[in-house]
Amino acid sequence: MADHLEASVTLPSDPASVSAARSYVVDTLAEWGLPSDTDMADTVRLIVSELATNAVQHTFGQSPTFTVDIALDRDEHLRIGVTDSHPRFPKRLPAAVQQDNGRGMVIIRWLTAECGGRLRIRPTREGGKTVSIQLPWSVPAEPVTTAGQQEP
Hints:
It comes from Streptomyces collinus (strain DSM 40733 / Tue 365). The protein is of the alpha+beta class.
């Protein structure tokens, strides 16, 4: 595989875009060798859902679009970032407020840490922010059949 792969998509800040972002990332990673039916793909799917949902719900109409960037470096590190143009950084809500929402960043942090990755939040030059995760890249070396034997 190449030393560096990257892909990007910009979507409208609309609830329907959450599904589009999730599908785009999972489909791209499948092209790069990560089967969509793995635990890693499920984890990425949930992280992207939470990141995209935050970009749609918490920008209060001040970010008409958001961008999802994906990068794979030397088959070792996967980076996924979601950028919007709203300047406010995500923050953890008080426990009383978290009953119906506010758990997205907690979920993202936990899943990222569970995979041995890290979360970063950076301001953009344009005044918005990028929330990104970096995970170790792990792709099954060989496909496995349903009988538990490796395919030839």
